[in-house]
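User: Can you predict the 3D structure of TetR/AcrR family transcriptional regulator? Sequence below.
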Amino acid sequence: MPRSGAETRSHLLKVAGELFYAKGIRATGVDLVAVEAGVAPTTLYRQFASKDDLVGSYVEGVDLAFRDRFASAIAAAGAEPRDQIFAIFDDAIAQAAQDHFRGCPAQMALAEYPDPASSAHANAVTAKSWLLNSIAAVTERLDVDDSVALARQLFVVWEGMLASTMSMGSTGPAQQSRRIVEALLPGE
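Assistant: Sure. Here are the predicted structure tokens for TetR/AcrR family transcriptional regulator:
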């Protein structure tokens, strides 16, 4: 049974995402994506005008999935902002400890697509801005002098945790992330 256009697009994004994450974005050609997806290159180009369009859509999709995971961690933590911050970091630490973890897809896109005009870069910046703003929305509810500065500090810990996991594994320096967060947050 043939797929609809929306199903084909979704399938291509899933296959491309797996390849981009495992092999690297620039190292993965559209021909490989088409072969792995079981479609002709012309089918891929009917769904995505270019590889940049495909990559931009991939980054947007991983951002939306991350936002759902972030919201779930916040909701599961209860109403206390301190607990919510710990929950999002604990979730990220657990994700980074998985065997297939290669790093943050948005960080990877920023490294491989430095041109701010590319949709991959723009969508990665949007993802990172959303994360910083979402952390700030939580820190605003803490009894601190400068909730924006605290959000920025937590964001730097977050980014460093993900980046250091790529180079040194989840048992390396990233393992200290929770302790750093504890030191930054006001006591209960």
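Residues 52-184 form a domain with the Tetracycline Repressor; domain 2 fold (CATH 1.10.357.10). The chain has nine helices and no strands.
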